[in-house]
Structures are given as structure tokens and as C-alpha cells.
Write a structure and sequence with these properties.
The chain is an alpha/beta fold. About 35% of the residues lie in helices and about 20% in strands. Strand 1, helix 2 and strand 2 form a beta-alpha-beta unit.
Length: about 300
């Protein structure tokens, strides 16, 4: 579920920026026809790709077993690659972060199926993390400092933190270097935070539970505080590209919504540390569309 080098890189990277199971014996769907080509579920690469692929493989095995829809998992090369794969129909469904869904809906006509329940919530915030011994106490104190973002298409790792700075008048022309001395992209939330704790940057942008979930070491977590927090961001979810069989999509969605409770907890935790899913509607992401527009990523006229 969180990003600017230059406007040119941002535009190129953002051109393109991934279902589950239901409990109970005797409630499985009938198997899909053997001739069916497996659907491909794309995974947003928010952590170590090898570990994510392993978790994704277990996830789609559960979906196939419980929904009767053959599926396979594929980790995208980067956030933008998820949207491009949906647009070109190389994948069929995708775990998408909020900005990723807005772009996938706009560029590929995808529709949201379900929204993640994470830490018992369906929204989160983004923050600028700093070391407690740095003397940085306000967002304004980051002027002239170095920052690690996550990815140019990350909601909590770039888009929303930048929106916070723009609305406070701290960044001009959507360029982070009008405020920071240097801005880099770490690629993952963990890498951004480790750049901070190791002293390579003065601040890192990430989501509200990121230190506990990504660093895992209480001693490292205790070294960090934060300055500046965004408004709530709707949780990530799973979307489907157009052109899929409505029956297949309905079976997958039903399985996703039924996947909850202890018997599915390990699979859900391993994939993106989530608790389950709830119904989602396209309109849930209108505030994200506003953020995308503020960042100058609206569809060209």
C-alpha cells in the first residue's frame, strides 16, 4: 500500500501503475473448465519481490481452490508496471494502491472489486518520519534536508506527502527539490525507512504503521518520530480489467469477501499483512483523484 525525481520521470513512470478464498467445506465453487487459461493477478512490489512472489503463489492457490477460478501470481517490476500490465491486458486482476487504482481506472478502464481491511481499518495516513535526535520538530524544518520517498506512484510514499507540502506552500511547481536539498526514491517502504535510520537521509515518507511493520525491531522503531501527517487515504484493494467474464469476476469477488477469520489469517498476513476485504466502489477513490489532479497527473486535454 506509498515518490519525484523530475516531472518527466514522474509522467513516464505513472503512465501505467493486484483475490482470494472463502471458508467452509462444501461451499467451494465448481471448478473452471480445464481449458480455461489461468487469470494472472499482479502484485504491487511494495516489499522484497522474492518473498512477495512466494506469498502471492500461496494466495492464488487458495483462490483457485475456493473459487474454482485458475489463477497465478506475478510481481510487477515497479508500481507503474502494474497499470501498464493491466492496460495491455498482460494481467487480469491486480492488487493496487489507491493512486494505482485511480490510474488503472483512467488508463485501463479497470474497476475496483474489494478494498483491503488493514489493522482493522479501511484507510490510513502518510507521514514524514525523522530521527528523534535530529532536532527536526516541524514539517518546515525539513527545508534544505534530504528525504527518501518510495516510488513516484506510491500513495503514501510520495503522492500524498507531496500534496501535504504543496498545500502548505512549501513546494513549488510540484518539484520536491524546491524544498528539499535532495529527494531520492528508495523503491520500497522498508528501504526508505532504513535509509533514514542509517543516516543516509534526514526524513522518509511512508504510511502510518510503516516503522512497526517494515523495520520490526522495537529499538529501531523507538528511534523514529514523525512530523506532518496527511488526511486519511482510502485503503488499497483489488481491481479487474475490462473484458473478463462477469461470472468469473463475481466468483472471485465473492471469494474475496468471504476470506476472513483464523483459517485464512496466515495467507492474508503473508500477502500484504491484511485482515480481509470489504465491498468497494469507484467513488471511494474520488479524494485520491483530487490528489492526482493536484500533482498534475490529470489526463491530458
Amino acid at each position: 500500500m506509498r515518490r519525484d525525481r523530475s516531472r518527466a520521470l514522474l509522467a513516464a513512470t505513472l503512465l501505467a501503475t493486484l483475490v482470494l478464498a472463502l471458508p467452509g467445506a462444501g461451499r467451494f465453487f465448481a471448478p473452471a473448465q480445464a481449458a480455461d487459461v489461468p487469470l494472472t493477478l499482479a502484485l504491487t512490489p511494495s516489499r522484497d519481490p522474492a518473498a512477495l512472489q512466494e506469498a502471492g503463489d500461496a494466495f492464488v492457490r487458495a483462490i483457485t481452490r475456493l473459487s474454482g477460478v485458475p489463477m497465478r501470481a506475478q510481481v510487477a517490476s515497479d508500481y507503474a508496471g502494474v497499470v501498464e500490465a493491466l492496460r495491455s491486458r498482460r494481467v487480469d486482476l491486480a492488487f493496487v494502491h489507491p493512486v494505482g487504482y485511480v490510474l488503472a481506472n483512467r488508463e485501463a478502464g479497470c474497476r475496483i472489486l474489494v478494498r483491503d481491511i488493514w489493522q482493522g481499518k479501511t484507510s490510513y495516513t502518510a507521514r514524514f518520519y525523522v530521527r528523534k535526535d535530529s532536532g527536526i520538530q516541524r514539517v518546515e524544518d525539513l527545508r534544505g534536508k534530504t528525504v527518501a520517498f518510495v516510488d513516484p506512484a506510491s500513495s503514501s510514499g510520495y503522492i500524498y506527502p507531496m500534496m501535504l507540502l504543496i498545500k502548505q506552500g512549501l513546494v513549488r511547481d510540484r518539484d520536491p527539490k524546491t524544498f528539499f536539498k535532495e529527494a531520492l526514491f528508495a523503491g520500497t517502504h522498508e528501504s526508505a525507512l532504513r535509509s533514514l535510520v542509517q543516516g543516509r537521509v534526514d526524513a522518509a515518507a511512508s504510511f502510518d504503521k510503516s516503522p512497526e511493520l517494515e523495520l520490526k525491531d522495537p529499538a529501531l522503531v523507538a528511534r523514529l518520530g514523525f512530523v506532518g501527517e496527511t488526511p486519511p487515504i482510502p485503503e488499497a484493494g483489488i481491481c479487474a480489467r475490462p473484458g473478463l467474464s462477469p461470472d468469473v469476476v463475481a466468483r472471485v469477488k465473492t471469494a474475496l469477501l468471504a476470506m476472513k477469520g483464523p483459517e485464512h489469517a496466515a495467507v492474508l498476513k503473508n500477502i500484504y499483512n491484511i485482515d480481509g476485504f470489504e465491498e468497494a466502489a469507484d467513488g471511494d477513490y474520488d479524494p485520491v483523484r483530487d490528489a492526482v489532479s493536484l500533482m498534475g497527473l490529470a489526463r491530458p486535454k
